[in-house]
TrEMBL record:
UniProtKB keywords: Glycosidase, Hydrolase
Any Pfam family hit: Glyco_hydro_1
Catalytic residues, chain numbering: 363
Lineage: Bacteria, Pseudomonadati, Pseudomonadota, Gammaproteobacteria, Enterobacterales
Superkingdom, taxonomy of origin: Bacteria
Gene Ontology molecular function terms on file: beta-glucosidase activity
Name listed for the protein in its UniProt record: 6-phospho-beta-glucosidase
Family to which the UniProt record says this protein belongs: Belongs to the glycosyl hydrolase 1 family.
Length: 466
């Protein structure tokens, strides 16, 4: 293909602390909301304590906490320019409300970022990725409590100050719109919370995000800080005007988060939605001022598209979090996720037309049951095809005039899935020898896609096949 990707394009991969690190109580780490969801986002929450009477797969995950030098070296071998990961808030403030941070937690990320710097891999760091200190849920009621804004701001200022010379790209909350569908994971509220309670908690998070943006600008003037959306784009199932409007409203339900974080205010369509659904939230004049601290760029995940229709007799297809009416023109993965590479080009254009800010694709990938052959090789041609086709469409969007900063595929190394805490749902270019029962040597092994991605990066996209 013709050169589309700029020389500054940040190629890499994306992980999350709670899905790779393990060491879940090591070095004074506190319990997080993720530690209370050992079966994943859609499993039941469990009560846990430091006695560690039960052992779950995420407690060790892939032991990145101890094996990160080996993993970073493998990422460097692929040619990574960028690695997205998160800081575990509970490593820095174990309960969330301490006056002083936990030095051993801070020191771990110093070591991690120093290791990345050895290979000139740019860190892209998420402040809160599907977890928060359980102490803030137990003692304060989660994000429904306005006090959490200050706790998060203090956490953000602490890590900005500590890593200001090492990290120049930051994200606030992972897939912030996900709280509408999984409130405990997103905002620490019980699943039966009312819409008013969930949107109030979301509002507190939006204010906290804006305060983090301001703090980042003050503490690290040469850094860039963005938001992160779950890119759940839907098409109208038919050209019936009612279906077109239904798709418009469903897209607005998640684009609203981008509107607030990029434009600095609540859009009119949300004011109407709140009124018509008897949703009442408190937004102070001071909140409105804070929200004007808008992000430098927009990052998002993209795995699948869906359709919207007013025909309520049609069944939905389940993705990681969102359920959407399936598109009859698209194939599906073995987990039922519809595969739509052109949807990524469409979404990139939608977001750039709407916001005119740089975009960063920080999650995209294919979960599959990778099985080694008789010689121990993993020939994941299906993953290569999936990623190739999506990256071709990223190139097309760049040719359309969209400003795309980079692409970090989800799970460059096999990790524990967020939705169901499985190891068998594998995304990586690197195979990790561990199964769903927690058995295995944790040995790392290069898949066929490892060498493919290496060639894509070294050619700056020229190796992609249309």
């Amino acid at each position: 293909m013709n050169q589309a990707f700029p020389d500054t394009f940040l190629w890499g991969g994306a992980t999350a602390a709670n899905q790779v690190e393990g060491a879940y109580l090591t070095d004074n780490k506190g319990l997080s909301s993720s530690d209370l969801q050992p079966q994943g986002i859609f499993g039941p929450t469990v009560e846990r304590n430091s006695d560690n009477e039960n052992v779950y797969i995420k407690d060790m995950a892939i032991d990145f906490y101890h094996r990160y030098p080996e993993d970073i070296a493998l990422f460097a071998e692929m040619g990574f320019k960028c690695l997205r990961t998160s800081i575990a808030w509970t490593r820095i403030f174990p309960n969330g409300d301490e006056q002083q941070p936990n030095e051993s937690g801070l020191a771990f990320y110093d070591r991690l970022f120093d290791e990345m710097k050895k290979y000139n891999i740019e860190p892209l760091i998420t402040l809160s990725h599907y977890e928060m200190p359980y102490g803030l849920i137990k003692n304060y009621g989660g994000w429904g409590n306005r006090q959490l804004i200050d706790f998060f701001e203090n956490y953000a200022k602490t890590v900005f100050t500590r890593y200001k010379d090492k990290v120049k790209h930051w994200l606030t909350f992972n897939e912030i719109n996900m709280s509408l569908h999984a409130p405990f994971t997103g905002v620490g509220l019980p699943p039966d919370s009312s819409k008013s309670e969930i949107y109030q908690a979301i509002h507190h998070q939006l204010v906290a995000s804006a305060k983090a943006v301001k703090a980042c600008r003050d503490i690290i003037p040469d850094a860039k800080i963005g938001n992160m959306l779950l890119g759940g784009i839907v098409y109208p199932l038919t050209c019936k005007p009612e279906d077109v409007l239904k798709a418009h409203h469903e897209n607005n339900s998640w684009l609203f988060f981008g509107d607030v974080q990029v434009r600095g205010r609540y859009p009119g369509y949300m004011q109407r939605y709140f009124q018509e659904n008897n949703i009442s939230i408190t937004i102070t004049d001071e909140d409105k001022q804070w929200l004007q601290n808008t992000v430098d760029f927009i990052s998002f995940s993209y795995y699948m598209s869906g359709c919207a229709t007013t025909d309520e007799t049609l069944s939905t297809a389940k993705g990681n979090i969102l359920s959407m009416v399936p598109n009859p023109y698209l194939p599906s993965s073995e987990w039922g996720w519809q595969v739509d590479p052109q949807g990524l080009r469409y979404l990139l254009n939608v977001l750039y037309d709407r916001y005119q800010k740089p975009l960063f694709i920080v999650e995209n990938g294919l979960g599959a049951k990778d099985l080694p052959d008789t010689e121990g090789n993993i020939n994941d041609d299906y993953r290569i095809q999936y990623l190739n086709d999506h990256l071709v469409q990223v190139g097309e969007a760049i040719k359309d005039g969209v400003d795309v900063m980079g692409y970090t595929s989800w799970g460059p190394i096999d990790l524990v899935s967020a939705s169901s805490a499985e190891m068998s749902k594998r995304y990586g270019f690197i195979y990790v020898d561990r199964n769903d029962n927690g058995e295995g040597s944790l040995e790392r092994r290069r898949k066929k896609s490892f060498h493919w991605y290496q060639s894509v990066i070294s050619s700056n996209g020229k190796a992609l096949k249309k």
